[in-house]
Write a structure and sequence with these properties.
Alpha/beta knot, 2 domains, 7-stranded parallel sheet, 11 helices
Length: 274
């Protein structure tokens, strides 16, 4: 459990590069590598790191994402790190108001995907060091800025947690569009459990026939029918699940009709919906 599977990384219209400036804690560095691979990203660059990429804690925290540590590129400046990037985005939890708003115009993580998709090429997403963040000069070198929607009473998040939040959002958008189509995003959980109208109609009729086959008056039959339909639909079943329920209801109805010795059912309607 937790091992890396032999499937390709997801594809995107853009190439995302995570750049961390002055990263100090090897545990954070390892956690960043792990969260990057969790969401299918693997390009990490460091600017003036204050910890060793080969630190034991970094390796331990990276788990099966050690390949990202192995391929980290280290630079002396942000300018060098983003030299091959066509879009540079800075992150900050400092959301000042007043005169500084003329400089710090932010967008939220969920706005990034559309901007990135419209900008094919290599995109740098830059994070500052623990406890310091990006300097004003660093932020001014970016094309635009983004911030997490954290609570204003305590807005600064842990470095690896911040990266996790951004990559979760970016990859979630990839999953919604490409799950089951992209080899790197196999269909694990159906995105929409919407039962087609015709199948829903067949299910309701199967429930109706079943409820009418149960001994009792019409009021009892209606109560059973409504309860079965309501409980089934409230659980957001898939089309396959509804199809299996229909089969089970038909079998149950057929058994009840045989019990009632219904010759018409035996001859003309056995195991099908009309």
């Amino acid at each position: 459990m937790g091992d890396r599977k032999n499937i390709p990384l997801p594809s995107s219209p853009y190439q995302l590069v995570i750049i961390c400036v002055n990263t100090a804690h090897p545990g954070n560095l390892g956690a960043i590598c792990r969260t990057m691979l969790n969401y299918g990203y693997n390009q990490l660059r460091l600017v003036n790191p204050l910890c060793d990429v080969d630190d034991v804690e970094a390796r331990n925290r990276a788990k099966h994402a050690g390949s990202i540590l192995d391929n980290i590129a280290v630079f002396d400046s942000i300018a060098e790190a983003v030299e091959d990037c066509t879009l540079v985005v800075g992150t900050s939890g400092k959301r000042e108001v007043g005169s500084k708003t003329s400089f710090r115009h932010f967008c939220f993580p969920w706005e990034l995907s559309q901007r990135f998709n419209d900008h094919p090429g290599k995109i740098a997403l830059i994070f500052g060091g623990e406890g310091t963040g990006l300097s004003t000069d660093d932020l001014q070198s970016c094309d635009f800025l983004t911030t997490l929607p954290t609570w204003e009473g305590y807005p600064i998040a842990n470095l690896s947690h911040s990266i996790n939040a951004y990559l979760y959002q970016l990859h979630s958008d990839r999953v919604q569009i490409h799950q089951g189509v992209d080899a790197g995003i196999p269909e694990i959980v159906p995105m929409e459990n919407v039962v087609p109208p015709k199948l829903r109609e067949t299910f309701i009729e199967a429930v109706n026939q079943f409820s009418l086959s149960i001994p009792g008056n019409q009021e009892r039959a209606d109560s059973i029918k409504n309860s079965l339909i309501r409980m089934s639909m409230m659980s957001s079943p898939t089309s396959d699940e509804i199809t299996r329920l229909i089969g089970g209801l038909i079998d149950a109805t057929t058994a009840l009709q045989y019990t009632h010795d219904n010759d018409d059912w035996k001859k003309n309607r056995r195991r099908r919906i009309e």
